[in-house]
Amino acid sequence: MTERENPCFEPRDMPARGVVYALGGLFAGIGLAIALVGGLSTVLTPGDRSPSTRLERQRIVPPPPRLQTDPQADLVRQGTMQAKQLERYGWTDRLAGRARIPIERAMDLLAESGWPDFDRNRP
């Protein structure tokens, strides 16, 4: 029995030429789509768009109240304030007798005494 009489595949079910044509068509379609999208994006993308009129060049400042005029400085200020709170003693609720301690001290106390056990019966 020769290879030609008993091939390892079904030659009549899937012709190799059809698969090659289908793959060629698929890749040609993908290439055509890429070329079309590239051409459209080149045509539709505006070039140098500098303000051409005096009104477009004018800086418009919104009317007051200006709530946040410099967000970067506000962020730095808030971070500094929070870092100071973590390093100082202070009251969180004076009437209830609750105070905050520096985080380094809190970590030392926690390391010495361990994590407090909570009463599991309390809701």
Order of helices and strands: HHHEEH
- Main pleated sheet: 2 strands, antiparallel
Strand elements, count: 2
Strand content: 5-15%
Structural class: mainly alpha
Helix tally equals 4
Instruction: List the strand order in the largest sheet.
Output: 1-2
* Cα shape: flat
Give the termini distance in whole angstroms: 83 Å
Summed up:
With 123 residues, this protein is mostly helical.
Short key terms for the protein model shown above:
single chain; 123 residues; mainly alpha; two-stranded antiparallel ribbon; 4 helices; 2 strands; flat
Notes on the protein architecture:
By secondary structure, the protein is mainly alpha-helical. The protein is built from four helices and two strands; from the N terminus they run H-H-H-E-E-H. It has helices at residues 16-44, 54-57, 71-87, 103-113, and strands at 90-93, 98-100. Strands 1-2 form a two-stranded antiparallel ribbon. A hairpin with a 4-residue loop joins strand 1 and strand 2 (98-100). The relative contact order is 0.04. The mean pLDDT is 86.
